[in-house]
Amino acid sequence: MGLKEELAQDLESARQGFHHLLDSVPESLYAHPSDNLAWTIGDVLYHITLGPPAIRFEIWMIHQTPWMFRTLNTPTSRLFNWGNALFARHPKRITRQTLTKAYEKGHAGLMSSLKRMREQDFARSVVYPPEFVSELAGEVSIERLFRYIKLHFEVHSGQIYRALNHKVHEGTQRKSF
Hints:
By secondary structure, this protein is mainly alpha-helical.
C-alpha cells in the first residue's frame, strides 16, 4: 500500500468514527458538558467538523505560503486559539444533519487535496510553535497534517465518551452510548 492509500484509510477511519460518534450521542445530550471544561458535547462535535477544512487550509499554506508559519508566535497563536474556541463554542443550533453535512464537506475537500498531492509534497514541512497546536509542536510535514485528522478526532471524541461515562450529579451512572 502506498502513502496516499494509507492516508486515505486514516481519513476514512476518522470519518467513520465521527459518524459512529454521531450515531452514539442523542441530540438531547448536545447541551451537556463534555470532558473539556470549556465546551459542551455539541461544541466538541462542532469543533471536530472544523478539523478537516482547517487542516486542508494548513496543508495549502505549507504548500503555497510556508513563510506565513514564521508569523506564528505566542500572540498570534493566542489569537488563533481564541478564534478557534469562539467558533466552536455555542454555535447556532446544531443537529446531527448539520454536523454530518459539515464533516462530509470538509472530508471531501481533504480527500480532493490528497488526490492532487504529489509524492514529493508530503515531505514539505514547517515548524509549528507549541502555543499554536500543542499536539503538532515542532516540525510538521504535510504527511503529518493528513495523519493529524485521526488524532484530532480521537482526542475530541474521547472528551465526549468520557463525559458520557462520568457519574451524574445524583450518583447514578450515565449510560455508555
